[in-house]
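In response to the reviewer comment on reproducibility (Comment 2.3), we provide here a single inverse folding case reported in full, input and output, so that an independent group could reproduce the run without further information from us. The structure tokens appear first.
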């Protein structure tokens, strides 16, 4: 019996992939901290005072986590909604056409998967409208062409 004939191959591969992504994220964070500490050591070796190093490092970290433009977030929500809606509708149409061609009822699972994407896209559209209403409450007029 081949190892790939087992029904557990896909779930095990999915778990291994998720575990691998988690380990890669942890490694990436450790590497960035290591690079920051090496940068501090190099500055100390060049004679930069410790207070200046701490101030520069604090400024560098603050620059990475700056507040984003609300219109960009609004445009991203709308763009994500359009991608999810169009992808979901495409999957639904593909699933229905596949069932019509093959006459195998189980292929409608593809259409059901498309419905999930459509629902998430509708959620993003609702979020977009809520963000737009919230920004207009604070006096920011949202032009749908400018939010691109």
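Designed residues, in position order:
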């Amino acid at each position: 019996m081949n190892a790939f004939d087992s029904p557990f191959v896909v779930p095990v591969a999915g778990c291994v992939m998720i575990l691998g992504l988690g380990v890669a994220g942890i490694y990436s964070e450790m590497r960035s901290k290591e690079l920051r500490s090496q940068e501090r050591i190099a500055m100390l070796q060049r004679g930069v005072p410790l207070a200046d190093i701490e101030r520069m490092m604090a400024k560098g970290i603050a620059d990475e986590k700056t507040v984003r433009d609300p219109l960009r977030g609004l445009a991203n929500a709308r763009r994500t909604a359009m991608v999810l809606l169009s992808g979901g509708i495409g999957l639904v149409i593909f699933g229905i056409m596949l069932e019509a061609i093959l006459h195998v009822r189980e292929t409608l699972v593809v259409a059901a998967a498309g419905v999930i994407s459509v629902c998430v896209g509708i959620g993003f559209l609702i979020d977009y409208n809520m963000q737009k209403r919230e920004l207009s409450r604070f006096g920011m007029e949202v032009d749908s062409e400018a939010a691109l």
